[in-house]
Sequence to fold (150 residues):
Amino acid sequence: MRNTGLCLAAIGVMLWPCIVPQGQAQSPAQVPADAQHYDGKWQTTVTCEASRGALGFSYRFDSFVKDSHLRGLRGTEGQPSYLLVEGDIAADGSARLYAKGMTGSKEYVPGRDTQPGTDFGYHVKAQFEEKKGAGTREEGRACSYEFERK
Fold:
C-alpha cells in the first residue's frame, strides 16, 4: 500500500505542469490577438536621395508580417543589390527595423569607390497604422520607407 501512495505522488508531480487553472496561461502555440494586428502582405517602397555623387533610386518589393515580425526581401539574399529588411512591430505600430544587403552598381553607392557586392546595414525607424506605414533610415544617406498593406 505504501508503494501505491508513492506512485500516485510521482504521477501527480509529472502531471502538475499540465494542470493549469482555467484562464491562467496560454499554450505556446497561441499568440495574443494584438500580435497579429499587422499580419499580412505589405508592399514596401524604398526611396533614397542622391548623395555624395551617387544617383538616387526607388524600388518596391513585398514584405510579409507574421506575429508582428516584418520580413521583406528585394533580390536574392547574398547576391549584389539585395536588401533584407526585418524587425518587430509593437502593438502601438512603432517599429525599429534593420536593413542589410550588398551594394550593386557603383552609380548608386555614395562615394562610388565601393565595389559591387560590399555588405552594408542600417536601422529604420518606422510607424505602422492599419493599412499603411512610413519610416526613415537612421544612418547614412537619406532614405524613406513606405509600407502599404495589400
Observations:
- Strands lie at 40-48, 57-66, 69-74, 83-88, 94-102, 119-128, 132-137, 143-149.
- The CA atoms of residues 18 and 27 lie 10 Å apart.
